[in-house]
Write a structure and sequence with these properties.
The chain is mostly beta strands and about 90 residues long. It has a single domain, classed as ATP Synthase, domain 1 (Sandwich), CATH 2.60.15.10. The protein is built from no helices and nine strands. Strands 1, 2, 3, 4, 5, 6, 7, 8 and 9 form a nine-stranded mixed β-sheet that branches. Keywords: ATP synthesis, Cell membrane, CF(1), Hydrogen ion transport, Ion transport, Membrane, Transport. It comes from Brevibacterium salitolerans. This is ATP synthase epsilon chain. It is a peripheral membrane protein.
């Protein structure tokens, strides 16, 4: 299975980065699920949770407020005004 290179960053620091099989995020257009091979897109991040399913099968949950989401060539970047990890589940 092809993986995504994911980075979640806030205005102050990188919050999380790594490889994942799926990312789900809330944008101003609604919730979006991203898998490998997704078409390029840009979206505005609506305040809410970003869920990342890592290559190891863990779920990383982050809270992101403001900013944007970018998807291109199996790279997902969530660049938020404020972001923090809220939970990591096995």
């Amino acid at each position: 299975m092809a993986l995504l290179d994911v980075a979640v960053v806030s205005a102050e620091k990188e919050v999380w980065s790594g490889q994942a099989s799926r990312v789900v995020a809330r944008t101003t257009e609604g919730e979006i699920g991203i898998l490998s091979g997704h078409e390029p897109l840009m979206g505005l991040v609506a305040g809410g949770e970003v869920r990342i399913l890592t290559e190891e099968g863990k779920t990383v949950r982050a809270q992101a407020e403001g900013g944007f989401l970018s998807v291109a060539n199996d790279r997902v970047s969530v660049v938020a005004d404020a972001a923090e990890i809220t939970q990591i589940l096995d």
